[in-house]
Design goal:
By secondary structure, the chain is of the alpha+beta class. The protein has 16 helices and 12 strands. The protein folds into 3 domains: about 140 residues, no CATH class; about 40 residues, no CATH class; about 210 residues, no CATH class. Strands 4-5-6-7-8-11-12 form a 7-stranded mixed β-sheet. It is elongated.
C-alpha cells in the first residue's frame, strides 16, 4: 500500500471519526505533528494553523504585503459634529438651526459641521485583517521552531527569517493595518468573503481564498485533511505514522461492521488513554488503545540459552517461537529491510467480569529482519500483558490461543507467504489483507 492510498484512506476516516468527535483530536494530532514541537501543537486546530503558514501561497502573500498594503480600500464618510466657537468643516445650516432651536435658543456660537473622514471599515478589510491576525498569531507561536533546522520547516522561512519580523512590524505598526478594526469572533461572514472574492484588488481575492482553505481544514473537510496529510511539512518523514493510523481505523471500521448496527462509537475524553470505545447492546464493550497502552507492563528480555523446549521459561519461549514462526511464514530466503519503528494497538473486550485481548504490532516494512523483530515484540507484548498487575495468559499458554496476537506488515506482492490459517501462535497480516482478515480475527475473540 503506497503513500497516496494511505492518505486517501486515513483522510476519510479522520473525517468520519475524529472530526465528528468520537475519537480524540489530540491523539491524532500527536501522531502527525512534526518532530520537535511542544504540547501546544497537539491541539488539532493549532496544528492546522501551523500547516497553514507553511503553505507556499501564504509565504508568497506575506512577502508581497509591504508593497500591496498601501493600495487597500477605504471609503469616505461624512461625520456631523456640533461645536461652539469654531467651525471645522462645512457648516450644515439646516442641522445647525435645528440644534440651536432644540438645545440652545439664541446661541449664535453653536454650529453643526460636516467633516469628511477616511474609513477603513469595509468588508474586504475585515477579511484581510482576519487573515493577517491568523498569520501573526501563528508565527508568534511557531517562531522558535521556524528558526531551527527541522526538515519540516520550509527553506523560505529559514532563509528569510527577517520576514517574520517584517510581518510582526507590519501588523503592529503599519498605519493602514492598525486602522482596520479587529474582526468580531464570527467574522468574516460569508457576505464579507463574497465581497472579497469579487474585489478588483488582488490582495483581497487572495486573502479570501486563503481563509477559505484554512476554514475547510479547521472544519475537517476531507479534501483539506488529505492535503494536510500529504504535505511533508506536517507529517513525519516516513510513512510509519500513516500506516499505524490506517491499521487503527481498520479496526474501528471492522468492529462496527461486526456488531451490525448494535454498537456505537462513544465519544472519548481527551484525558483518557482510550482511543475509541465501542459499546454494544448486549453489554459488552470494546476498547481500543494505541501507542501508549500498557507500556509499563511490557518487558524485553535477553536471548535464551539452548534448552529443550519443555525446559524453556516463558521469556525463552518467545525467541523459540519467533524462529519457528519466521521459518514457517517465509517460504524463500529473499528479504529487504525498510524500517523498524515499533508500535502497538491493543483491543480489549469487556464482557461482565471477563476480558479478552487482541494485541497488534505494526511494521511499515516487507523486510524479513524487521518482520522477525515485529514477531518478537508481539510475542513479548502477549507474554507480559498484564491487567491489574496480573499476567493475562497462564504459563501453559503465554501467547494466548493463537488468535490474540497480530503483526501487520506492508504488502509483499512477490513473496510467497503462509495463509492466515497456516500460521500459528500469532497471525501476520499484510495491509491488503486487513479488510477480510480483521473480521475473522474479531469472530475469534469477540
Amino acid at each position: 500500500m503506497d503513500r497516496a492510498e494511505l492518505i486517501d484512506s486515513v483522510a476519510e476516516d479522520l473525517f468520519a471519526y475524529v472530526m465528528h468527535g468520537t475519537m480524540p483530536e489530540t491523539h491524532v494530532a500527536e501522531q502527525i505533528k512534526p518532530n520537535g514541537l511542544d504540547e501546544r501543537f497537539e491541539d488539532f486546530d493549532a496544528l492546522v494553523d501551523l500547516h497553514f503558514i507553511l503553505k507556499p501561497e501564504v509565504i508568497d502573500f506575506v512577502e508581497a504585503l509591504p508593497h500591496r498594503i498601501r493600495s487597500i480600500k477605504t471609503q469616505t464618510k461624512n461625520v456631523s459634529t456640533a461645536s461652539r466657537g469654531e467651525i471645522d468643516g462645512r457648516i450644515d445650516w439646516e442641522s445647525t438651526m435645528t440644534t440651536r432651536a432644540s438645545s440652545a435658543p439664541g446661541d449664535r456660537s453653536l454650529f453643526v459641521c460636516d467633516t469628511r473622514h477616511e474609513s477603513y471599515d469595509v468588508d474586504e478589510n475585515v477579511v484581510l485583517k482576519r487573515l493577517l491576525s491568523l498569520i501573526y498569531t501563528t508565527l508568534d507561536d511557531a517562531e522558535y521552531y521556524l528558526k531551527q533546522e527541522y526538515d519540516w520547516v520550509t527553506d523560505r522561512w529559514q532563509e528569510n527569517l527577517e520576514l517574520v519580523d517584517r510581518m510582526r512590524d507590519l501588523f503592529e505598526r503599519n498605519v493602514h493595518v492598525t486602522r482596520i478594526r479587529a474582526p468580531e469572533r464570527y467574522e468574516p461572514t460569508d457576505r464579507m468573503l463574497q465581497r472579497a472574492d469579487g474585489a478588483r484588488n488582488e490582495i483581497y481575492r487572495e486573502a479570501a481564498a486563503l481563509l477559505r482553505d484554512h476554514q475547510a481544514s479547521r472544519r475537517g473537510d476531507v479534501d483539506a485533511i488529505r492535503t494536510l496529510l500529504a504535505d511533508t511539512a506536517i507529517t513525519p518523514g516516513d510513512e510509519e505514522t500513516l500506516f499505524e493510523l490506517y491499521v487503527l481505523f481498520q479496526y474501528v471500521n471492522a468492529i462496527e461492521d461486526h456488531k451490525d448496527g448494535d454498537a456505537t462509537v462513544s465519544t472519548i475524553q481527551t484525558d483518557r488513554q482510550e482511543v475509541a470505545r465501542i459499546e454494544s447492546e448486549d453489554g459488552s464493550d470494546v476498547v481500543l488503545y494505541h501507542d501508549n497502552s500498557g507500556r509499563d507492563d511490557i518487558s524485553f528480555i535477553t536471548h535464551p540459552r539452548e534448552k529443550a523446549e519443555s525446559d524453556l521459561t516463558r521469556s525463552e519461549r518467545i525467541y523459540h517461537e519467533t524462529q519457528k514462526i519466521t521459518n514457517r511464514y517465509f517460504k524463500d530466503s529473499d528479504f529487504q529491510v525498510r524500517s523498524n519503528r515499533p508500535d502497538v494497538i491493543v483491543l480489549e473486550i469487556q464482557r461482565d467480569d471477563q476480558y479478552e485481548y487482541l494485541v497488534t504490532e505494526v511494521k511499515n516494512s516487507i523486510g524479513r529482519r524487521t518482520i522477525r523483530n515485529g514477531i518478537t515484540e508481539t510475542l513479548e507484548y502477549l507474554a507480559f500483558l498484564r491487567r491489574d498487575d496480573q499476567l493475562v495468559y497462564e504459563e501453559e499458554t503465554p501467547f494466548g490461543t493463537g488468535w490474540n496476537g497480530v503483526l501487520v506488515v506492508q504488502d509483499m506482492e512477490e513473496q510467497d507467504t503462509a495463509s492466515l490459517h497456516e500460521q500459528e501462535t500469532i497471525r501476520i497480516l499484510q495491509a491488503s489483507e486487513l479488510d477480510t482478515a480483521i473480521p475473522e480475527l474479531l469472530e475469534r475473540v469477540l
